[in-house]
Design brief:
By secondary structure, the protein is of the alpha/beta class. The protein is built from 21 helices and 11 strands. The radius of gyration is 27 Å and the shape is elongated.
Length: about 500
Amino acid sequence: MKLNVVIADDEYFIRQRLIKIIDWKGLNFNFIGEAQDGLEVLSLIAEHKVDLILLDIKMPYMTGIEVAKYIYDHSPMTKIIILSGYNDFEYARSTIKYGVLEYLLKPVSSELLQQTLQECRLKIEKEKKAHQQIQRYYHYEKCSALYDTRTDRLPLKLLYDKYPELYEAKYGLFIGVFIHENMEHYMNRLMELLRHIPIDCEYFKETDYIYTIQLFLPSEDALHEVRNLLGDFLYTTSAVLFLTFSNLFSLEEQWKKPYKLALKMLKQRYFGHHTRGIIDSLMNTQSVLLPDASKIRQSLITYINTKDQEGFKTYLHTLLDDVMNQKSISYMHTVITEILLTYKIYYQDLIQLDHSLSDFVNAMLDEDYKISGIEQTILSYGLKCMKKETPPSDIVFSKRIITYIEENYANPDLSVAKLAEIFNLNTSYIGTLFKKVNNQSLLHYITTVRMEASKTLLKQNKYKIGEISEMVGYSDVFYYSKRFKKMYGYSPKDYLQHAHLEEQK
């Protein structure tokens, strides 16, 4: 990871010399900016996330010691190297109580500076890693408590006793978030912005692309500030990103209904023509006339059995155009389910779904944001039924993908988009190819490999659950635990305890 660095000295030529002699690329540093006085340092800290400051002890407006004290009180993760003249060296060392990492006597040699920066980098990375582990554990514990409260397993009073910071909140709000291709850094940035307001909030990773954020607001007016902030965030981001808002609710009320509403509204992303935006309402909440299932089934069978590929493609496109016109999730779910059910009933030797049909359809809808993506998926299954064989080249290529996944599942950046980049393919194409050969989505296969690897690690009874989560590519231990339980029917904690008991026998 790159560390963000600021250089602060009231002498211009000293700043320029430091900028010039630091090996920015070799040290993996990112130069944020320079400051000629203490106030400019504080301004840079307010605008950017700064990891390290090379700080002169004597500067106008605020001394280096005053700046160090401010940073210690307000930004403790920002570290400092003090630059001092000979006469001020002992004075500078008094800043040790403010967590200053090193002290360098001016003029500092290039060799000593590089060595000091390298040592500081290792210290910062070690502290960051420890801090991240603490934060992940806290996030896991708090999300578990919030989940138990949402499902009426934990009374609100006990939640307040456990997390007293929630006492100041009067209202709750759920935000649904869809971020395509697992762009988790956008999610982390979003949480930073919300907490900067400041608002107490936590997020839940629902699927690989869908999150919910739970916010605790002190007043109704705070909602306007949240909406404005998120609107600005959408405007500046390049990601495929959709946001939904539940109704504002009193924390004394049931949480389940607004939570489900935020997720339900998120499915409306299919019926727009944009790649980002705020979805404010449910479309077509009225009951719609469902399609004639028998007619769909008969048409599909006719096209497949006659091997009419063009007619088949046109028919599927017409069906999904009708879905777009209806703007109804239930209508879309019915059409897609009927298509896949036809495949499963009449061509079961070729189409084998790992989960129930309903779960399979829901997973498909969670992964995409355009009807065209869904169309490609169900088209690939239909063509497979039609051809009754898979080209050998596709099988070979699929094996290469599988090998790469099995060797790199521990990488948290491993995703469909990453695989597409590695194999120089379009994201939609690589997903379609994999499904055609393996009868399951590429994303599901990645998850399965990771879960099976985590079971092996749990059996060894040598690692904590948080450590295992990281070892199999999950930075969010709460999400890892949830996926594990969904796949196997019990939590990693229960499995670990069972493995321990078996070992003792």
